[in-house]
Amino acid sequence: MLTKILFTLAVIAVVFAMVRFRDRPARKPAPLPVKKTGRPWIKVLAIAVIVLMLAGTAVIIYLNWRDSHQIMQVQVIDSGSGRVSNYKVYRGELQERRFVTVDGRQVQLAETERLEVAAAP
C-alpha cells in the first residue's frame, strides 16, 4: 500500500516538474565555432577510396558471374557398363555428385558413375 502512494507521489512530482519547466523561455544556443577548411584533400581522398572500393566490388561480382556462367562439357561414365553420357552444364551448377544442365535437367550421379569435366568447345 505504501509503494502505491509513493509511486503516485512520484508521478505527480514528475508531471509538476514537466509543467513548470516547459513554459521557460529557451536559452539561445551558443554560436557554432567556424570550421577551418585547410584540408580539402581529405575529402577528395575519402571519395576516391569509396569509388575504388565500389569499382573493385563491381569487378569481383562480374568476374564471379562470368566464371559461374561458363559452359562446361560434362561426361558421365558408368563404370559397370561403360556407357558415356554427355551434358552441357554451367560451371556454377556443378556440385560434388549432382548438377543441372543448361536445358534444366537435374542429374544425380550414382556411386558407380565417374564424372569428367572439360571446357566446352
TrEMBL record:
Keyword Transmembrane: yes
Record keywords: Membrane, Transmembrane, Transmembrane helix
Parts of the chain that traverse the membrane: 41-63
Tagged with keyword Transmembrane helix: yes
Protein known as: Antitermination protein NusG
Provenance organism: Thiolapillus brandeum
Lineage, opening ranks: Bacteria, Pseudomonadati, Pseudomonadota, Gammaproteobacteria, Chromatiales
